[in-house]
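Q: Hi! New to this. If I give you a protein sequence and the SMILES for zinc ion, can you show me the bound structure?
A: Yes, paste them in.
Q: Okay, here:
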Amino acid sequence: MAKDFYDILGVSKSASSEEIKRAYRKKAHEYHPDKGGGNEQKFKEVNEAYQVLSDDGKRSQYDRFGENYQHAPGAGGRGGQAGGPFGGGFDFNGFNGFGGQAGVDFDLGDIFSDIFGGRQERQSRRQRGVDLEMPLTISFEESVHGVTKTVTLEKRDKCHVCTGSGAAPGSKIVTCTKCHGQGQIITTRRTVFGNMQSATTCDKCDGEGKTPETACTVCGGSGVLRRPKTLEVKIPAGIDNGQRIRVQGEGEVGYKGSNPGDLYITIRVPASKEFRREGNNLHKELPISFVQATLGTKVEVRTIDGTIEVKVPAGTQPNTVLKVAGQGVPLVNSGKRGDLLLTVRVIVPNKLSKQERELIEKLANLNGEATQVNKSFWENIKNSF
Ligand SMILES: [Zn+2]
Ligand SMILES: [Zn+2]
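A: Thanks. Here is the predicted structure of the protein with zinc ion bound:
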């Protein structure tokens, strides 16, 4: 009796589980005994094929051992002819009692919800915990130099008393009394097709077949507790406003305290009054007097690291950009740094002492520059830049 489950469903050996599910739904509709042109024998074959191919473990056994898959180690050997080769799954023998009630309108969805419901529920209980996201504000200086911050968040975490097992300390682990160690509850329902059996994951042991004799009193046996957790988070030098840091495994825990999600920290950096960041460069204004701009000077400049002396050459024009290499923002996780760019602002005085005025007037006369002292002398000076 060599059956090819892939042929029965009309899919290739490399079909994805999604393709298999789709093919199964299509064929099940086509052959359903309740439809005109349905075929009970084929319907059962389709179901048998789907039971095997939809289960990764059974499918790989079948792929390896072919028609002898029943004898393969690990392939559930409980079932005989009646239960199908993989007892413990779904039993469609209820359809044997089908007597050809043509024209009965039935809801396939109802049947499928039993089939898929059990699986989905079981999977979701073992799912990974959710990712968490939190904002964290650091100072501008901290964003440039890097910082270690202590953050506290409240989350679903592994119970600290039972470390996620759900068992009271010292409790024995015993066979589940509800499912008798099967991990599944088989229920039989009467339907228009006869008796139908469906399997759902045992809710007492979550499908494990074993439960602690005494549940942990702190978490009620769930293995999970909502509680605050304090973390030290290392924020790398050079991080920018809006960037996110992933802290692996610090989201909420999943089933019984396992498979934790990740924590994402969104960094907020308020603007600096002194520096403007552009990529990895820092910009800053450098105000000097028109005399300093004319004659050249050395000025002390506060950088993000400390103070340096910057040489302004004689004849420096307004808005000239002076570059101080390597005094910008570090590139995250690299030894490189951006530059500090100083934009020269030439300050024209709006108040002069008598002596200053006389000197500047002399300079103007020397250069043959017309001046209207009371009105627009300074306008002329400004316009000359
Ligand atoms: Zn506990
Ligand atoms: Zn159970």
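A: The pocket of zinc ion (ligand 2) is lined by residues 176, 178-179, 183, 202, 204-205, 209 (CB under 6 Å). Let me know if you'd like me to explain how to read the tokens.
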